[in-house]
Specification:
The protein has six helices and 28 strands. The protein is mainly beta. β2 and β3 form a beta hairpin. It is globular, with a radius of gyration of 20 Å.
Length: 394
């Protein structure tokens, strides 16, 4: 078993260990407090959240409706699909996003119009529906994934735990692997969660204890006989709202290992840096290297954030996502990673704080308090992470 408990998001790794031993970030760290605090009536006297009336208003809202969320465990249980590679191997996959708006509504997927512009080079694999043993099956032309590597992250020396000195993604796709596939003329985000393994082997993990040498590192349990798979989620923010999202792939070994995701070289052909410009397939995700960390042992700093904090073993990095559905029109599950670093002047002036939205982050950049890594210009790192949005708390 190569199962390693992952942080929600960028995997934590205890400094004393040669391999990462991260822990899932408690959802309570970002979950909003009850409205009854400080009021003269109990929470049961409060009405339903405005989001139950109109999804754009404040309140909890599930975006990826295809699955069932366990907020306490920080997981989602999704339909498990069985497909096939053209060369004959079995492909077990999930569906999270599509540029087919009507089918997104019908299947409870996220709609992303921008995915059409990912269809460049290896960015989108070709697939088709075919009869296989008398059943209509999605057959992918290419894209194999090896789940056998042992996932590991070796942190740097304190206090600068980032960048890690060594990383190994727990799953590695071949040169053509991308989670995106064109099926029936539309593009679907279809991450592979197991490859070339039979149902009997996977059914042994219906109750959990999944063997991550044969399944994706985010899989908590997988059950072909019930056609479901349960996956661990990541905590973060989007325009000040706490959110949960699912990290499945990255185009580079560093973010793939830190995310507990699959290395997907095909995503490298998707252009970055365009954000919301014409023909851009990506949206921006903002991460910080040296955010606030815990000061006292066993006491969580309510403002903690960043890669150093995560690699120190304090919890997830609490990244900031750009536009998500119901908040903006520019959502894409392909996130262009923009990495920031607080300047020493900002730290000495006590200006360093938890970042919660895109424009707050960009404001700090414009004011000179945040730069790119090592003082370089702030902007795209060239790295893409595939992180479908799942739930917003507010």
């Amino acid at each position: 078993m190569k199962r390693m408990l992952l942080l929600a998001g960028w995997c934590a790794a205890l400094p004393a260990l040669a391999q990462s031993l991260p822990v899932q970030t408690p959802i309570t760290e970002i979950q909003p407090a009850p409205a009854s605090i400080g009021a003269d009536v109990p929470v049961t006297y409060f009405g339903t959240a405005p989001s139950t009336v109109q999804k754009e208003l404040i309140g909890p809202y599930q975006l990826l409706k295809a699955g069932t969320i366990d907020q306490e465990a920080g997981t989602i249980t999704l339909p498990l699909y069985k497909g096939q590679l053209a060369s004959g191997e079995t492909v077990w996959y999930i569906l999270t996003d599509t540029n087919d708006e009507k089918n997104a509504d019908a299947l409870g997927l996220n709609f992303s119009a921008k995915l059409v512009y990912a269809d460049v080079g290896r960015g989108v694999r070709k697939a088709s529906q075919q009869l296989v043993n008398g059943r209509t099956t999605v057959v992918f032309e290419s894209g194999k994934v090896d789940f056998s590597p042992v996932h590991s992250v070796t942190p740097g020396a304190a206090p600068d735990y980032f960048p890690p000195t060594a990383v190994q993604p727990g799953a590695v796709g071949d040169a053509n692997y991308s989670p995106l596939a064109k099926i029936g003329g539309y593009i679907y985000n279809a991450p592979i969660v197991a490859f070339n393994v039979d149902e009997k082997t996977l059914d042994a993990f219906c109750s959990g204890n999944a063997d991550h040498s044969v399944v994706h590192d985010k899989v908590v349990s997988i059950c072909p006989r019930n056609n479901v798979v349960t996956l661990a989620l990541t905590t973060g923010f989007s325009f000040g709202r706490p959110v949960l999202y699912l990290s499945t792939e990255a185009n580079n070994a560093l973010p793939a290992a830190l995310e507990g995701a699959t290395l997907a070289p095909g995503l490298t052909d998707v252009q970055v840096g365009g954000d919301d410009g014409a023909f851009s397939a990506v949206e921006r995700l903002f991460a910080v290297i040296n955010g606030p960390t815990n000061v006292e042992p066993n006491v969580v700093n309510p403002g903690r954030q960043g890669f150093n904090s995560a690699l120190k073993g304090e919890g997830g990095p609490l990244n900031v996502l750009g536009g998500i559905p119901t908040v903006a029109t520019d959502y894409s599950p392909l996130w262009d990673l923009n990495v920031g670093q607080w300047t020493q002047h900002a730290i000495d002036s006590h200006y360093r704080a938890r970042l919660r939205d895109e424009f707050q982050t960009l404001g700090y950049v414009r004011s000179g308090w945040l730069t790119g890594p090592g003082g370089k210009a702030f902007g795209s790192s060239g790295l893409i992470v595939n992180c479908p949005i799942v739930f917003r708390f507010l």
